Amino acid sequence: MKLRTVAPLALGLVFAVSTARVAGAQTPPPAAQPAAQPATQPAAQPAAQPAAQPAAQGAQPAAAATDATFTGSIGVLLVQVKGDQTAAYESLIAKLKESLAKNEKPERKAMAAGWKVYKSSEPTNGNTLYVHIVDPVSAGQNYLETYKLISETFPAEVQDLYGKTKDAFVPGGLGRLNLTLVSALGTP
């Protein structure tokens, strides 16, 4: 086999293994299983659900992934979405993009500047993999605070958005990677 063939296969294998490990070790993203939040502070934390939603008590283990504050210079989030829920998830991402664009906070502008979302063309067990690549990472910012980020700009829309997207996520389908560049092979 030539090197040009092996490198993409190796990269694909790394993502497949990472996804399989993540699927067995993580719970769904906070957007899928938010925890209770006082009615006076809707969507105030990454795991927060809008105030009017009943809490899913005990549904999320204490060690669940609710933090994507990256420590590397590049961050990657892997999010598996149910195949029939891609439109709902993509509407959430569109509203997140709109919210970040309209938000005047410098830290939100910095988050948006390096954040790209990709969709895998190949389904996995009928699910769709979304890859969020953050390059550069905005230090100290939690990239899993989807509802909080949206509520900063569109507080009245968070409740409806949560209702439409809460069941879109595959249980155990969230992964996070902190990356540090070792070498840029195309530069001298």
Low-confidence stretches: 1-64
Sheet-strand content, in percent, reads 15-25%
Strand count: 4
Q: What is the overall shape?
A: globular
Category from helices, strands and their pairing = alpha+beta
**Main sheet: strands, sense, barrel:** 4 strands, antiparallel
Compute the number of helices.
5
Strand order of the largest sheet: 2-3-1-4
What does this structure look like?
By secondary structure, the chain is an alpha+beta fold. It has helices at residues 3-25, 86-102, 106-114, 146-151, 158-165; strands spanning 74-82, 115-119, 127-134, 169-179. The protein is globular. It starts with a helix and ends in a 9-residue tail after the last strand.
Question: What would a concise description of this structure say?
Answer:
The protein is an alpha+beta fold and 188 residues long. It has helices spanning 3-25, 86-102, 106-114, 146-151, 158-165, and strands spanning 74-82, 115-119, 127-134, 169-179. The protein has one domain.
